[in-house]
Amino acid sequence: MGVEVRLWVDSEPGNDPARRVLVLPGARYGIERPGLAWPARALTLRGWQVWTAEWSMPMDQPSAERQPLVDAAVADFVQQNDALPQLVLAKSVGTLAAGWVADHSIPALWTTPLLIDDECVSNIARASSPALLIAGSRDHTWDDDGARRAATTIHRIRGADHGWQTGDWRTELDAVEQLTREVERFAATLED
Question: Structure pTM?
């Protein structure tokens, strides 16, 4: 299983290389899916360069085996850019980068975070940079105690599950719109 990090094809030419965001997707939820594509598009329209990781992970792969893939993605980004990202946008398994993010004081957007993973929660909690947790109210990886321990800003989207689905396309569009609005609002606080 390999990892590739590349400049997102929908990034706007000429966007500021001093404002790079690294997107770390879910195991089966890449940047082409609405819960990452629309937030990434909003960031590009605000002038951010969007870089995305791509990987292939079996759903039943243990976290201990997923961590090296996440670590390889962040190392590849740093090597290609000779710099750290100014923002990390991670979904689900991508939130396993929380330790690296905390170690490097990088602001982060944790979407559908793995709050059922104690190490992930501890790493989110020890971060000193701004962070936002965003998840649906029916997300199976959400844990209220973990969220409290993470002690960061939280935004819950009513009715959405781990894949931002609700069972109705209208409310799914609304969920992705809320998610995108929160991502854009958070990024705006970093742009001054």
Answer: 0.95
